[in-house]
Amino acid sequence: MLTKDFTHSVVILIISTIVVASFSILVLIVPNLVRTDEIRATSLAKPLTALEVAGRDIYISEGCHVCHTQMVRGIEPEIKRDGRANKEGDDIYEFPNLWGSKRTGPDLTNLGRKYSAQWQRLHLIDPRQVVPTSLMPAYPWLFKQVLSGDDIENKMRVLKGLGVPYTENEIERSRLAVKGVTKGEALVHYLQSLGNDTASDQER
Amino acid sequence: MSQGMELYDVKVVRYFIVAAVAWSIAGMFIGVVLAAQLYWPVLNFDSEYIQFGRLRPLHTSGVIYGFVVNMLMGTSLYIVQRTGQTKLFNQSLSWMVFWGWQLVLFLALVTLPMGYTSSKEYAELEWPIDLLIVLVWVLYAVLFFGTIAKRKVNHIFVANWFFGAFIIVVALIFILNNLAMPVSLMKSYSVFAGAQDAIVQWWWGHNAVGFLLTAGIIGMNYYFIPKLSERPIYSYRLSVIHFWGLVGFYTWAGTHHLVYSSVPVWVQNIGIVMSLILWLPSWAGAFNSAMTLLQNKEKLKTDYIMWFFMSAILYYCLATFEGPLLAIRWFNMVAHNTEWIIGHVHSAALGWVGMSGIATFYYFIPRLWGKTQLWSNRMLKWHFWLAHVGVALYAIALWVAGIGEGYMWLAQQENGSLAYSFVEAMDFKAPWLFVRFFGGACFVLGLLLMAFNLYKTVSQEQGEVADAN
């Protein structure tokens, strides 16, 4: 068998491909995955409240991340436009990351410090009322559908298991905080939270 | 000699190829709808289910998992039989793979518009569907490698190395990227957070391109291009270099999506350097395929299927030139998050993957049904020009839109204030988004011509081909 190569042995083809393709896991992926404590040490991030978690899941479900990034890059014009640049520790409670890959609409990293909740509501119900040439879809149904809150305790528990420091008390009260709120209101709560935890770290 | 058919399992291959044609049209039609929504937002119809944010993952999944994976599964199962002179390792396994994969696609079609998504780009499906994908993929791997193992030919043909790498690496990266904690049947959270999640995400995101849309398609082409040009592969040595170049360097390149982001700089730099290195094996492989076609210049003069393959190779050169360029910091600063990236992806997806697929369909489908010639060569020519006008308009429109908005985002006045608002950049690119919509529509119109032409070809009465190759 050792006299053969990958063009003559299916076993060698499989093994050599796995080995050669896997170097990047060892060099790139594993060292980054074990750095959790190091990243946390410098973090200013605060966990989302139950209502904000519900809002974030609506953000994901509607695909907002498809058009909006949450990654201000460390480049002067970007910081001028969108506020403080992201740091590695900012996103330690972001399961999964919502950095996005395309800026069809503006970056939302520090959105919470820019507009009022009322503006957000109007904008979600009819974007062209506030930005005449906006391309964004209107989301009127979000303000008609009401959250039951049935799954929020599970969500909080899973997030706690992944490392978000929620207390038992917070988890038990989460359903009450969410139940009966419209999807739109929850989403606005989430949007209004963006960037507030790092506000004390503004570049001077 | 219709015996050629009975020596191999062909029926399941036919099913895969029909599914691939259907999904190529469906997936790209949804793409045209999305392009239209970006020009006429009213086309979102204030509907929960067809608004841009939910349709977009259906477009990418439809094209990647529907069109490309069906096509690669079908052609790989055919090629592995032909090049090994043996039937499939297990026939019922092949049907499990076929119907299993169609179930995955059906579930994607239902769940993505309903808003069930993990948000991970090109891997949006929720965890139960991910488990089904892994199961089907393992069965596919067993079927493919099992068939190689029982081959009657000593040598493993080049195409099968690339298919093998595509099957193995996609499995590795898919599983790692989709590790998640379930909350309920249709909701889960990634086990990775923030910057770590982004690194894993783009390790998957770029290698789905590298191994699904590149290695898999190369495997397919290394069989069909020599068949079509009736000449052997130009250089065996180059194909070995091409193979190990891709397998060795591609999985490193994904972090070029994170340049200037908050991940550590050394991680960004690996992505940049490896992207530049990839240039070499890519162009070596492209040269190899182009020379294989050019060995038969007589046929190249008249055969539009050859032209489709030649165009695909040229678009591969363009995209693999543009990719490393975009990874370089200075270009990345301008291009990141702009329409340019979408244009880059589509010049590869429509130009390289799409035209390879089209050429394969035109060459393969008549033979798969035992027909000697296409129903209409004139329609094939029309398709060729429609496809080219489509991709060219698409790419040019998004170069202009992307570079324009990239500069407008960065431009500063002398006093340091920003020169343009975000809305001004949006308004600048609006007409170009219309051109993009028009280009995409041309491309889909071409596909419809193809489907009609191929349908007429396989349903007409005519002499059978001597050998189903």
**How much helix is in the residues of chain A?**
40-55%
CATH topology of chain B: Cytochrome C Oxidase, Chain A
Radius of gyration of chain A: 22 Å
Query: Uncertain segments of chain A of ≥5 residues (pLDDT<50)?
Result: none
How many DSSP H or I helices of chain A?
9
CATH class of the largest domain in chain A: Mainly Alpha
The amount of helix of chain B comes to over 70%
Spell the H/E element sequence of chain B: HHHHHHEEHHHHHHHHH
User: How many separate helices of chain B?
Assistant: 15
CATH evolutionary superfamily of the largest domain in chain A: Cytochrome c-like domain
Find the biggest chain interface.
A-B, 82 and 85 residues
Task: Give a quick precis of the structure.
The complex is a heterodimer of chains A (204) and B (469). With 204 residues, chain A is mainly alpha-helical.
Give a structural overview.
Chain A: GO terms for molecular function: electron transfer activity; heme binding; metal ion binding. Chain A: This is Cbb3-type cytochrome oxidase, cytochrome c subunit. The complex is a heterodimer of chains A (204) and B (469). Chain A has 204 residues and is mainly alpha-helical. Chain A has 2 domains: 34 residues; 152 residues, Orthogonal Bundle (Cytochrome Bc1 Complex, Chain D, domain 2), CATH 1.10.760. In chain A, 47% of the residues lie in helices and 0% in strands. Chain A is globular and about 75 Å long. Chain B has a single domain, classed as Cytochrome C Oxidase, Chain A (Up-down Bundle). Chain B is built from 15 helices and 2 strands. In chain B, strands 1-2 form a two-stranded antiparallel sheet. In chain B, strand 1 and strand 2 form a beta hairpin. Chain B is globular and about 75 Å long. The C terminus of chain B is likely disordered. At the A-B interface, helix 1, helix 3, helix 4 and helix 7 of A face helix 3, helix 5, helix 6, strand 1 and strand 2 of B.
